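Lecture notes, unit on protein representations.

Consider one protein chain, 389 amino acids long.
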Amino acid sequence: MISDGLSDLLACVAAFGRSLGETFAPAQFLAEFSTRVQRLVPHDYIVIVRREGSRATCSVFAEYAMRGALPAHGGQYTTAFTRGERLPVDTSMAPLFAGETQLIGDVTTDTRFGHDALVANRASGLRALVGAPLYAAGNVTGALRLVSATPHVYTDAHVAACRQIADLIGPFVETVVTLHRERRRRERLEAVTALPAILGASLKLGDVLDRLGEAVRPLIDFNVMGLWLASADGQGFDLAGFIGSGGVSHGPPDTASATEHSLVERVSRGENLVIGDAERELDLGRAGDRDLLQSGHRSLLGVPLLFGEVVGAVSFSGHCISTGTTTATSKSPAPSPRRSCSRCSTSVSPSSGRRRGASSVRSRPCTARWTIGSASTRSSAGRQPSSRR
């Protein structure tokens, strides 16, 4: 005979597993699971929160309200993988991410919640809370929280039950996140197939820059994208062109030297560089790094362009700290130069981030073509975009 407690736990896991076969809707995914959990831990609201890579933010994996509306959190769902839309880890959530269980008799008066959170808790009508950390591969990856409209309803027995449930579903949560991340990655990589046609449409950067940016955006979300060619002295890069500027005070400089920019120094050596939090990761002893930070750039991605050696680079920057995984990148092979081409720097209105008229395009001579690649397309790295002769 299986005890009632074990039977209820198995029913919870089975309900969670059945939900995996359905279309993932974060606000409905836990409906059957919530019903099964009721016998073990009665609740009016259940939420699974996932810890993000920065450790300072989190996102809502799934939630369900037995009655009433869902608490307002701006829709920062994990599987959206949207840059910048994440929740800060406050003092009430930090203990869970440190591996502790949680029992709060009344969330409307507990001092572990900040003022704004207390106001929101009172408005929600929810009172008592019990929570436990989620584990996967030996690490805390998130938290399970159950909340009741009745204050002081939970006991140590409810805490133990919550922990057992959390231990059982932790690996399932990571499986769902991994599945959706791979789906998102596949969708992004499908956009790569459009790049050769765009790159081959013209040898003038100004003719294709906007189209290139729109094609790349599904791959990498950015506020500013810059294309660079190696400077004549080999000590940095000269700006070939850029698009966008929303969220930052101005675009990239016309030149970027390795001595003033730590990012340039590393990319010019052929390294891929991902900076998720510029304030913590840039070298503020360098003037170029300080300027980047003061301009509002918070996350950065730099990839070298290669034709035997580093002949240029492509850069992306955003005004939000990157909290999720970045699409993997690799050293991008530059195609064989077939003839001399021209490169242009496109002026951008800082207020709108849009290209100005054709009169703002300035041509400068060069002898190398440029391209862009992605790390997950290594099998197509040897292909060369077509070009007009």
